[in-house]
Amino acid sequence: MQVTETLAQGLKREFKVVLPAADLATRLEGQLAEVQAKARINGFRPGKVPVAHLKRLYGRSIMADVVQEAVNEAHRKIVEDNALRLALEPKIDFAGEKDELEKAFEAQADFAFTVALELLPKIEVGGFDDIEIERLVADVGEAEIDEVLNRLAEQNRTYAAKEGDAAIAENGDKVTLDFVGKIDGEPFEGGAGQDVDVVLGSGRFIPGFEAQVEGMKIGESRTLSLTFPENYASAALAGKAAAFDVTLKSVAAPAEVKIDDDLAKAFGLEDLAKLKDSIRSNIERDYDAASRRKWKRALLDALDKKYAFDLPEGLVAQEFDTVWRKVEAEQSRSGRSYEDEGTTEEAARSDYQKIAERRVRLGLLLAEIGEKAGVKISDEEVSQALIERARSFPGQEKIVWDYYRKNPQALAEIRAPLFEEKVVDHIIGLIKVTDKKVSKDDLLKIADEDAEEAEDEASPV
């Protein structure tokens, strides 16, 4: 096998591989000899089938295997002999005239093909002491804990059935209803319900529905005249006038809300103090996550500016295709055009090309930093993340689990963000970080605005 480098430009390499006809013939004969030893063909004794006969029957199929083995061997040889780090799988081109290829398949001519490769860039990581970011910090106030406590108490509120003359629906009562909605006298899909519970004044139904139920007595029926909001989720109902035939089946008055140890026990905690501690921890976790979104974006921005190196065109093209498919899917879902967004398709493609380049650059950089730092993701960590992913699909947990476990590429999508977060945590310990106290509202506002801007570009995975 003769291997000759024909191109070395940037991250691109090409090699011409020639497998002499004599070598092809030798390989083919070796394969035919193995087949002869095992072949069982009617009319011939085991192991005595003439090679010429086997060649007529299986020669082309065996030669295809010989060629594939030669391609794989050439690939390994090129990578090992030149110590290459590939960005993508190689591209094989069996260039040549049809007659020449046919002769090669008959082992009557040399077999030649080219191997095109794209390499990973060499990245000099260096230090990070020139990077400085600001980390927003917000304290959890008692008012925020009390707000959550009140919400939990409201969710845990009990109701006492009303009877006799007092059994009239009022704002704040929990009522049980049967109803049928109609547009132009005809029932519409999703507009009916039986034994539906609703707290009047909760805003669960469309505007005006709950208010018109107030004053009804148990067993009473009414027809409510309403109009669906113009921005209603269902376009078929938005802005439409509707009539609802409603029957009140029961009504219960709200009991006094108590925030005490019994409330804590209803949520599986020992006492009110433990419930407050749990609420504080949850809020702190939310604030830390919001702050992390902000400072992580700032860190990635700094890394993007600090490092410049050649990018594998194939990786960038793959990333662009992924991003662009999401853009087109969102346009299809929303019905908005480039003109609606004040741009053109050409300008949008240019912007998303830059986003794709950024994502590839940061992905390669973080991978290099993580490798040099010895960052590892354990199987246990992957399994725990997979469990959390499966839990987000209630009733389909086993299907989701099996899908990822049987698909290494899909499982890599679970591992990649875990690796990224660990690398980010490693870097944050090496740079200068200044904490800045802000209010809860400022923290959440800044983090949310930043998250919207960075939705497509902040994270490389």
From TrEMBL:
<dbReference type="InterPro" id="IPR001179">
    <property type="entry name" value="PPIase_FKBP_dom"/>
</dbReference>
<dbReference type="InterPro" id="IPR036611">
    <property type="entry name" value="Trigger_fac_ribosome-bd_sf"/>
</dbReference>
<keyword id="KW-0963">Cytoplasm</keyword>
<dbReference type="InterPro" id="IPR046357">
    <property type="entry name" value="PPIase_dom_sf"/>
</dbReference>
<dbReference type="InterPro" id="IPR005215">
    <property type="entry name" value="Trig_fac"/>
</dbReference>
<keyword id="KW-0697">Rotamase</keyword>
<keyword id="KW-0143">Chaperone</keyword>
<comment type="similarity">
    <text>Belongs to the FKBP-type PPIase family. Tig subfamily.</text>
</comment>
<feature type="domain" description="PPIase FKBP-type">
    <location>
        <begin position="172"/>
        <end position="267"/>
    </location>
</feature>
<keyword id="KW-0132">Cell division</keyword>
<protein>
    <recommendedName>
        <fullName>Trigger factor</fullName>
        <ecNumber>5.2.1.8</ecNumber>
    </recommendedName>
</protein>
<dbReference type="InterPro" id="IPR008881">
    <property type="entry name" value="Trigger_fac_ribosome-bd_bac"/>
</dbReference>
<dbReference type="Pfam" id="PF05697">
    <property type="entry name" value="Trigger_N"/>
</dbReference>
<dbReference type="GO" id="GO:0003755">
    <property type="term" value="F:peptidyl-prolyl cis-trans isomerase activity"/>
</dbReference>
<dbReference type="InterPro" id="IPR027304">
    <property type="entry name" value="Trigger_fact/SurA_dom_sf"/>
</dbReference>
<dbReference type="Pfam" id="PF00254">
    <property type="entry name" value="FKBP_C"/>
</dbReference>
<dbReference type="InterPro" id="IPR037041">
    <property type="entry name" value="Trigger_fac_C_sf"/>
</dbReference>
<keyword id="KW-0413">Isomerase</keyword>
<comment type="function">
    <text>Involved in protein export. Acts as a chaperone by maintaining the newly synthesized protein in an open conformation. Functions as a peptidyl-prolyl cis-trans isomerase.</text>
</comment>
<keyword id="KW-0131">Cell cycle</keyword>
<dbReference type="InterPro" id="IPR008880">
    <property type="entry name" value="Trigger_fac_C"/>
</dbReference>
<dbReference type="Pfam" id="PF05698">
    <property type="entry name" value="Trigger_C"/>
</dbReference>
